[in-house]
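Section handout, structural biology tutorial.
Before the tutorial, make sure you can parse a SMILES string by hand: atoms, branches in parentheses, ring closures as digits. In the record below the ligand is flavin-adenine dinucleotide, and the chain has 606 residues. In the tutorial you will relate the predicted structure tokens back to the input. Do not try to memorize them.
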Amino acid sequence: MRTGAGEDVRPCAGEGEEDVRGEVSATGCDVLIVGGGPAGCILANRLSADPSVRVLVLEAGGPDHWWDLRIQLPLAMGFPVGHRSFDWRYESEPEPGLGSRKLHHPRGKVLGGSSSINGMLYERGHRASYDRWADEAESPEWDYAHCEPYFRRLEGCVGEPRGTGRGRSGPQALQRGPADGPIFDAFFEAAQQAGYKVVPDATTTRRRASPRWIRRCGAASVPRPRSRTCTRWRTGRTWRSAATPRSARSCSRARVRGGPVPGQERGDAHVRASETILSAGAIATPQILQLSGVGDGEHLRGLGIPVVHHLPGVGERLQEHLAVHIQHRCIQPVSMSDIRNKAKWPGVVLDALVFGKGPGTRNPMQAGGFVRSDVAEGSEPDLMYLLAPLAMNSSDESVEVSAHGYQMHVGVMRSESRGSVKIASPVPAVHPKIVANFLSDPKDRDRWINAVERGRHLLGQPAFRHLDGGETLPGPGVRTGEEIMAWVRRTGRVGYHPSCTAAMGRGEMAVVDPDTMRVHGLDGLRVVDASVMPSLTNANTLAPTMMIAEKSADIMLGNAPLPPNRPERPRLVPAPEKPVVVSDVQRPASALPSGAALFAETKQTT
Ligand SMILES: Cc1cc2nc3c(=O)[nH]c(=O)nc-3n(C[C@H](O)[C@H](O)[C@H](O)COP(=O)(O)OP(=O)(O)OC[C@H]3O[C@@H](n4cnc5c(N)ncnc54)[C@H](O)[C@@H]3O)c2cc1C
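Predicted structure of the complex:
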């Protein structure tokens, strides 16, 4: 592996536990990976493929036990969020654009990181998101053509036909969900009635989709090979097999405190490594950098932290998605609300774990789409909708949701709003100050009003008439643009996608060199996780984070990069006249209205 200028050994301060001290500190390791989330696990897998390279992963959280249903059962995904055993439970500073509300920022604190507690939806995002990265990072190597082969390398799509542009043999199992039943049927029909196109895959669908391609999409679970069990396909479990198992086990309960800088407190363990890679996620990575004296010099000096390297971009440029839910009562007993009946839980668990079927095997949000708002720029959709055949608690708990219902997640996926993650204390246990500055981009207002209006228009189509018992959220009292914005400010919640806090690039605010993933100005220290995104993609962030790790592993190993995938003619239809809702449904291609554009996918990693 290519190491820094430093084949030299770099110390890393750590508050390790006995096993780390006993096994590692005496000998050191070649590569120290801080954080066993998706990025950390993928790096560990690829970098340890050479048995002579000793890779150590330090994960602050506990192991992802096979018997722990709270993280194993896909439908149980609500349980670990907010639970101190699995979640860092960050809370933001008052958000100026949201009436000074403080928002919860869940982050996985367990092997597998947030992939062990997340919603399991897999979205590459639109190719324009990556082409924008290439511009922002001033590196053509990060455009979609160069990133696409790495998506394919990590994807292991189950039951996917050949020639769809999806990876079929990668380690990360993916499968389309059934998205069946009257509510999803109504949704697909309503999408077409509203003038949208129903397509099989947001990213890879060609203009002329073959009938084979037209199949149901959505969130589903993946039966494990040689077993029918359907459990969450966490990166901790998926990618660990090829990594040094002893390292992963040994370090799953260790906690890194200071990062790469010497000067440990009494009782800390020292881990010596030729290379240190920070993969602690978009909140902890900038925190560790700042605690280590790498960040804005003035800010660090104000906290009494010796400045090792002045790098003003550390912790700056945070981006996050904001989301709300439109909710309806359902007058037919066809929603998933039965799932709230605790008497049914043993059967649901049994079906999922033993027979690999039933509602326990998946996230209820099994269909959705990407739409360009009236103010969208270029070809990139800036709105995302996801439908669940179930009414869930609203963030302001304004409605009772025990009855049958359905709800649509509405997210504005593009915004220039930027915030920050800044330490407030030199003590590692003190959470950093997080502020996303939601709604600070002047265009956010128009996007949000348009997002809610379009969502309502979709759910108001005749296809829903036989189900619709009336809108409960935001409800009839919210009509005008002002009222919509007041509701968004009152109920908007984080989309779980913090990114960009140690962005790749070459300018003054760049933190990471896009060619090497090294922190600018420091040898032997790299960052590989969601922090390095130059800007947030227009979809969920697990897939891009995994792709970043796959690509970074090749960079570090000095492998020739996978050849870019540049189709001779564009594989995606350019910006549509009308916005497009997306999902998959089993119907012949001839049933699709012609002329509209294609972009969508909703898969699930389980
Ligand atoms: C509730 C929730 C739902 C989500 N749903 C989806 C979804 O459906 N689809 C999707 O695409 N994305 C989703 N995401 C986002 C996705 O999971 C993240 O983008 C992705 O996990 C980021 O990976 P990462 O490796 O950058 O960081 P993380 O997953 O945050 O992993 C970082 C790891 O580092 C560890 N760590 C932190 N500090 C230290 C330290 N000091 N020492 C040692 N270890 C440390 C953490 O414990 C953690 O295990 C969701 C996230 C959450 C929280």
